[in-house]
Amino acid sequence: MLKSIVTGKEASATLIIKDSIDVNGRSLLKAFITTLSRRVDMVYAVCLDCTVERFAKGIPLDVAARLHCLDGYSDPLGWNNQSDCFQYNEDLVEFLQKYIEKSHSKIAIVIDSLSKVLQHQTITYVCRLLHRLQSESLVSGIECVQVVAMVHTDLHEAPSLNLIEHVCSTILTLTQSQNPQHTGVCSLLHKKSSGKVWRTMESFTLTDTFELEDVTEVKTAVQRKSESDDTVDPAANLTFNLSLNEKERKARNQVKLPYMYDQTRKTAALSTTGGQGKIFYQPDDADDFDEEDPDDDLDI
């Protein structure tokens, strides 16, 4: 599932990558940029965690040709009056609109990372921002194919992260892999357009050019236990037999249960002509019935 999400085979409008101090998610973020550069005209990346030069380091030249990095790191508080740098007190949507070229038909937005915005803005603004980036047309006639953002989980409280996850269609949570040959382990939650929710945990490896390789599913201890339980036959070592052979199974299927409305009873009921129905009542010995006063037992 992770490879389908990264390559775009499985559509995801808004995607969030949750990393921590133990596992940096920028490499996976660049893997999304690599695949998005093949699907859209231009990828606009807002660099809030590092300089534009550091963010673009290592990205192949063919990918860099379709990547436009926007500065949000050098002067985010406006102390140096740099007009080309995003500042925390301005609207990110309006900032992007100044740089998106109208000649493009399809674009993608990458934010590294939302943690900087969340530290200076409310969680309501951040959630509305993600919704606006995907639902609104930033520039008339240009489609935003995907919004990919990263957030550092160890900098924010769980309620804020839950609200961000609510507005995203895909949530990738990164953890360390016990296998040193793998880059990390990704816990994936994907909300399909049909309403179905897909959950999986997969390990992955990234190459030097940020290509995704060796994606394998990681089974948890609960999954392994359930699989082992399925292979155990509880009636294997009993002193008596609980199973049926073919002859006993046929005999059981031929037994007519008293509450079953079989074909014979159905035919007999349908063949009965009208006007022949009768009701017979046989009173019990315990019945106290007075024919002169049938309502004697009522408390009136």
Describe this structure in words.
This protein is an alpha/beta fold and 300 residues long. It is built from 11 helices and 9 strands. A 9-stranded mixed beta sheet has the order 3-2-4-5-1-6-7-8-9, sandwiched between helices. A hairpin with an 8-residue loop joins strand 6 and strand 7. The chain is elongated.
Q: Tags for this entry?
A:
single chain; 300 residues; alpha/beta; nine-stranded mixed β-sheet; 11 helices; 30% helix; elongated
- Oligomerization category of the chains in this entry: single chain
Please, what is the average pLDDT? Answer: 85
Relative strand content: 15-25%
Overall strand count = 9
Fraction of helical residues = 25-40%
Radius of gyration of CA atoms, rounded to a whole number: 34 Å
* Element-by-element helix/strand order: HEHEHHEHEHHEHEEEEHHH
Runs in which pLDDT lies below 50 for 5 or more consecutive residues are none
Approximate shape: elongated
| Main sheet makeup | 9 strands, mixed
Structural class: alpha/beta
Q: Write out the strand line-up for the largest beta sheet, numbering strands in chain order.
A: 3-2-4-5-1-6-7-8-9
> DSSP helix count?
11
Furnish the topology, listing elements before pairings.
Layout: H1 2-7, E1 14-19, H2 26-36, E2 42-47, H3 52-56, H4 61-64, E3 67-71, H5 92-97, E4 106-112, H6 114-120, H7 123-135, E5 143-152, H8 158-167, E6 170-175, E7 184-191, E8 197-206, E9 212-217, H9 221-231, H10 246-254, H11 263-271
Parallel strand pairs: 1-5, 1-6, 2-3, 2-4, 4-5
Antiparallel strand pairs: 6-7, 7-8, 8-9
Helix pairs in contact: 7-8
